Amino acid sequence: MPPDAEPADVDQVVTAVLTASRLLVAVSARSLASVEETLTLPQFRMLVVLDSRGELSLSRLAEHLAVNPSTAMRMADRLTAIGVITRRESAEDRRSVRLALTEAGRRTVAEVTARRRAEIADIVAAIPPGQRADLVRALHTFAVAGGEPPASESW
After folding, report:
1. Tally of CA atoms within 13 A in the half-sphere of 88 that contains its CB
2. Would you say the C-alpha torsion 94, 100, 102, 103 has a positive or negative sign?
3. Residue 45: which of 84, 5, 88 has the closest Cα?
4. What residues contact residue 42 under an 8 Å CB cut-off, 6+ apart?
5. β 56-57/97-101 pair status
6. Domain CATH number, residue 27
7. Which letter, b or e, does each residue of 93-114 get, where b requires 16 or more Cβ atoms within 10 Å of its Cβ?
8. DSSP state, 39?
9. Order of all β-strands in the sheet with 97-101
10. Nearest CA to 109 among 65, 63, 46, 62?
């Protein structure tokens, strides 16, 4: 589609987003592999959710990740074993497990995000300056519609 053409329907927008998502997944995978070879993308996503939303119960974290609590527990077990998250019983309900990032987890998220930010900056630099504001508006609208909090500027 020419850059100045308006998408005619939802299918064209979906195709454009899917194409862009392939690029972003590749950037994410490369940035993760360059910092931490033992983490999978879903495990890293768990770290990002904890980084952006703070300490969460296991069930709430599973909701944010759109996985079953048992899947989230297995991921949490692996991440606890490598020292990037902590698990503790909730003070209010001892049956509830609370999860939070460790300092090592925060460093991992920051390092991977910094590498990803640098690679995305190179891609954005290739976009004509006059089209960048439109991209920012479109991506912001997309993130809000999907319920994703904004990325930290400090990353």
Report:
1. 9
2. negative
3. 84
4. 65, 67, 75
5. antiparallel
6. 1.10.10.10
7. eeeebbbebbeebeebbebbbe
8. -
9. 56-57, 97-101, 85-89
10. 46
Beta strands in 9-89 (DSSP E): 56-57, 85-89
Longest dimension (CA), the chain: 58
Domain, as residue range, for 66: 21-145
* Segment 59-112, tens digit of pLDDT: 999 999 999 999 999 999 999 999 999 998 867 777 788 999 999 999 999 999
Q: Helix 58-65 and helix 41-53: axis angle, to 10°?
A: 120
Give the span between the Cα atoms of 42 and 72, in whole angstroms.
10
User: For residue 49, is it within any domain?
Assistant: yes
Distance CA(78)–CA(87), nearest Å, equals 11
| pTM, 2 dp | 0.76
Instruction: Give domain status of residue 85, yes or no.
Output: yes
